[in-house]
Amino acid sequence: MFKMRAVLQVFEQYQKARVNFVQTVAELATRPQNIEALQNAGVMALLRPLLLDNVPSIQQSAALALGRLANYSDELAEAVVSGEILPQLVYSLSEQNRFYKKSAAFVLRAVAKHSPQLAQAVVDSGAVDALVTCLEEFDPGVKESAAWALGYIARHTGELAQCVVDAGAVPLLILCIQEPELTLKRIAASALSDIAKHSPELAQSVVDAGAIAYLAPLIQNPDAKLKRQVCSALAQIAKHSVDLAELVVEGEIFPRVLTCLKDIDPHVRKNAATLIREIAKHTPELSQLIVNAGGVAAMVDYVNESRGNARLPGIMTLGYIAAFSETLALAVIVSKGVAPLVNALVNELEDHLKAASAWSLGQVGRHSPDHAKALADANVFPKLLAVYMHEESSEDLQTKAKRALKAILQKCVHLPALEPLLLDAPPNILKYVVHQYAKVLPHDVGARRAFVTSGGLQKIQELDAEPGSKLKEFIDEINSCYPEEVVRYYSPGFSQTLLEKIDQHHV
User: Fold this and answer.
1) Are 198 and 237 in contact, with CB atoms under 8 Å apart?
2) Are 253 and 216 in contact (CB under 8 A)?
3) Low-confidence residues of the chain, pLDDT below 70?
4) CA–CA gap between residue 377 and residue 459 (Å, rounded)
5) pLDDT of res. 304
6) In a 10 Å sphere around its CB, with 0-12 CB exposed, 13-18 middle and 19+ buried, how is residue 116 labelled?
7) What pLDDT is stored for residue 499 in this prediction?
């Protein structure tokens, strides 16, 4: 009897030691400063056999510790793969209790997140089918962990996302969205977003499974994190094609999504603006639909109120809408959309935001003289020119500013707005300015007079235009509107010549 007790005691001690070891390692792995020491001590090799332990709590803690280590760096995730730990996890996913399943799915997620190569290793281990089976579990925590891992696999490449689709994950993720648990809804929406983003075909597979009908109403959910994910998933579907964008709109997201532009959560606001941008960009009809829903005024407010990268989807949306037609560009002007675009052009620090603003201003102003005048009245020309001329502006920003200037100038017949450019613009911009004068002056007596009194006529005589160039042609057209002696009077050196003649006369 005594012997038996002594034997059992040894086993008991061994079990306690294993429990103590694995729980301590799991706890130590929560702090980054311990990770290297654990790695150097060979913790991976010690944890591996504990995954197959006959005590469930030890298995679970071992998986949790591995997950935390793999989550920390791709090097440790590699060690999980090379230690052949994945097949064990996959095998036990189908065998063990819900606590273990959560921890095992966490390890798979932690490995998959780092790179496409590591995500592929998770796929190769047969994990996807096992994770999809976990989505059918009763326990919401198991479903969460599995959905999260599948999202992390899908997000890297279209091929990996296709593996997740082929395993039948999408209909089950849509069922998860319908569950009462908020966290599960969020993770499932995020995973659908990770699948849909890669290609029209993958987005279509999400739509075909009926995702929009369950995602769209959640735009109104009070939970900010869920709204973020829902707006993102719908944007990732809508971005690919007109057909997909129309299906998202048919989910009756308007005007609901516009309230998200006013949400207290900045990520909700940005993702809602991105969703609207991905719809607006496709066709005039879709842009018109946004206008009809009151979307332009809401987007103008959004651009006014946001700063930095959060502004970008709003700036782009206004540009996309304006690009399609005179009427749609007018909707942006009437909704006071020019001022915030100018503000972004002048005040944003990053060149890509300035470039987007320049592009959008060009789309607003390029349609007609009235559109161009609205931009001239907002003092857009000198601001675009300043950005174009600034020596530290990026190449892309210079290109966008130049194109916008050219597009608006070619429609501008409001001559007072052009005057400052006569003085400041470089030759490649100047030719467009002079061209507009050449168009207007022959038909407008008042403008011809004003051109002389403002010093414009003198300025163009001073221009160094190449014979045979477009600029020279436009200058000649303007000069032909005036008597020869007037043109001569304003030519460089004329006053000097005149004085010399006077001097000679007295001699």
Assistant:
1) no
2) yes
3) 1-2, 493-507
4) 23
5) 93
6) middle
7) 62
CB hemisphere CA count around 313 (13 angstroms): 24
SS3 73: coil
Residue 392 has phi, psi (to 5 degrees) of -95, 0
Instruction: For 454, list phi and psi in degrees, rounded to 5.
Output: -80, -10
* Cβ atoms within 10 Å, residue 122: 30
Q: Is residue 338 part of a domain?
A: no
In this prediction the pTM is 0.87
Q: Are 430 and 387 in contact (CB under 8 A)?
A: no
Burial of residue 54 (CB within 10 Å: 0-12, 13-18, 19+) is exposed
If residue 198 lies in a helix (H) or strand (E), which one and from where to where?
Answer: none
- Count helices and strands in the chain by DSSP H and E runs: 35, 0
CATH number at residue 28: 1.25.10.10
- The first and second tokens of residue 185, run together, are 């809804």
DSSP for 260-280, written as a single string: HTT-SSHHHHHHHHHHHHHHH
Q: Say how many C-beta atoms besides its own lie within 10 A of residue 321's C-beta.
A: 31
329, 371 contact by CB (below 8 A): yes
**Domain residue limits at 501:** 441-507
List alpha helices for 125-265, DSSP H.
Answer: 127-134, 140-154, 158-166, 169-177, 182-196, 200-208, 211-215, 224-238, 242-250, 256-260
Given a contact cutoff of 8 angstroms between Cβ atoms, the answer to whether 170 and 209 are in contact is yes
Kindly state whether residue 203 falls inside one of the protein's structural domains: no
Task: Look at residues 400, 402, 357, 349 and name the one whose alpha carbon lies nearest to residue 378.
Answer: 357
pLDDT of residue 468: 82
Looking at the structure of the chain, the number of domains it has is: 2
Residue at which a domain ends, from 125, 140, 167: 167
Dihedral (CA of 26, 31, 34, 36) sign = positive
d(Cα 131, Cα 147) in Å, to the nearest integer? 8
Select from 316, 292, 289, 321 the least CA-distant residue to 302: 316
Q: Please tell me the predicted confidence (pLDDT) of residue 505.
A: 59
Domain final residue pick, 150, 167, 184: 167
Nearest CA-CA partner of 433 in 445, 416, 450, 449: 416
CB 233 within 8 A of CB 211: yes
Residue 280 in contact with residue 286, Cβ under 8 Å? yes
Q: Comparing C-alpha atoms, which of 411, 415, 331, 429 is closest to residue 367?
A: 411
342 within a domain of the structure (yes/no): no
216 lies in some domain = no
Give Rg (Cα) of the chain. Answer: 34
H runs (alpha helix) in 410-455: 415-424, 427-440, 445-453
What letter would DSSP give residue 366?
S
SS3 243: helix
- pLDDT (0 to 100) of residue 500: 65
Number of neighbouring beta carbons within 10 Å of residue 297:
16
